[in-house]
Amino acid sequence: MSRSPFVFSCDNKRYHTLNYYSRTRFGHKIYKAVIDCGLTCPNIDGSKGTGGCIFCDGGSGYFTHPYADISGQLILERERICKKYGDSAKFVAYFQANTNTYAPIDTLRQYYKAALTFPNVCGISIGTRGDCLSDETIDLLSEINSETALTVELGMQTCHDPTIKLINRCCTHDEFLEGFYKLKSAGIRTCLHIINGLPYETEEMMIQTAYELARLVPEAVKIQMLHVIKGTELEKWYSEGRFRLLDRDKYIDIVVNQLELLPPQTVIERITGDGDKQKLIAPDWTRDKIAVLGGIDKRLAELDTWQGKLYK
């Protein structure tokens, strides 16, 4: 019986984990030091829209220290990471909050270079949108890519334009694809982010998004359940009963089906969300990340299936 090459790998998973990738790429586990540059987005500042995506509360991770400069934030992140994992821990500088290519080139170069020269940093990850990748920006990213292990994380969320419009993304799927293909042409490692459970999307629509991911063959993917976060437009929708959230079992089934479709070499950098529990309104089951991960592993084993089993 054929099996995925990642079954029973270093962490005994039936999908290509970030841990497996890190250990084969760097020789050890890699952590993420989260940075908030204080940048905005074109669907926040009015250039394409206002209010941001309906699920967004500002884009900053709950570990970030946006009142400090890049080096100051990395010092604090290094203290956090090394306190837990030891002084020799290596990490990726993760530009997470909002759109981290949405600034003048000289400003971006200053930010990226400050992270690049920081001790313990072995790579850079930059979160952005497909419509914020000018040719000049691609040139800068190519420069950074020649100096370190670079990943650009693109928010795809879904391949369905009606949903994209509904969530106030202000970036069509074609615009996303244009940015993605620029990164591919430049040889830059790209991680695509999707969200399961977006309002009014059916299971079939989420599977179609996985088919689109498979067609694109990204180097990495993040899969997340939709979170209703305090203070967002989505919280208002949820309180008014305008949509229903997936339950845990349905989410697990959808993820398993999506994994079967994805290329086996695509790294699964995230398979469930890990948000700020103090701001989380729903779904409550996402608070128990271990149970979700265990449920996915159990379902894969029950079905004797794995990432890439149905990939063509």
Structural descriptors:
single chain; TIM Barrel; two-stranded antiparallel ribbon; 10 helices; 17% strand
Poorly predicted regions: none
Q: What is the domain tally?
A: 1
- DSSP strand tally: 9
Spatial strand sequence of the major β-sheet: 1-2-3-4-5-6-8
Instruction: Please tally the helical runs, counting DSSP H or I stretches of 4 or more residues.
Output: 10
Oligomer: single chain
Shape: globular
Q: List SSEs in N-to-C order.
A: HEHEHEHEHHEHEEHHEEH
Level-1 CATH class name? Alpha Beta
Organism: Ruminococcus flavefaciens
Protein name: Radical SAM core domain-containing protein
InterPro entries: Aldolase_TIM, ELP3, Elp3/MiaA/NifB-like_rSAM, Radical_SAM_C, rSAM, rSAM_sf, YhcC-like
Domain Radical SAM core: 25-264
Topology readout:
Layout: H1 18-25, E1 30-35, H2 70-85, E2 90-95, H3 105-116, E3 121-128, H4 135-145, E4 149-157, H5 161-166, H6 173-185, E5 189-196, H7 203-216, E6 220-225, E7 228-229, H8 233-239, H9 248-261, E8 267-270, E9 280-282, H10 289-302
Parallel strand pairs: 1-2, 2-3, 3-4, 4-5, 5-6, 6-8
Antiparallel strand pairs: 7-9
Walk me through this protein's architecture.
The chain is an alpha/beta fold and 312 residues long. The chain has a single domain, classed as TIM Barrel, CATH 3.20.20.70. 37% of the residues lie in helices and 17% in strands. The protein has 10 helices and 9 strands. The protein has a 7-stranded parallel β-sheet, sandwiched between helices. A two-stranded antiparallel ribbon has the order 7-9. The longest helix has 16 residues. InterPro entries: Aldolase_TIM, ELP3, Elp3/MiaA/NifB-like_rSAM, Radical_SAM_C, rSAM, rSAM_sf, YhcC-like. One of its GO terms (molecular function) is metal ion binding. This is Radical SAM core domain-containing protein. Its cofactor is [4Fe-4S] cluster.
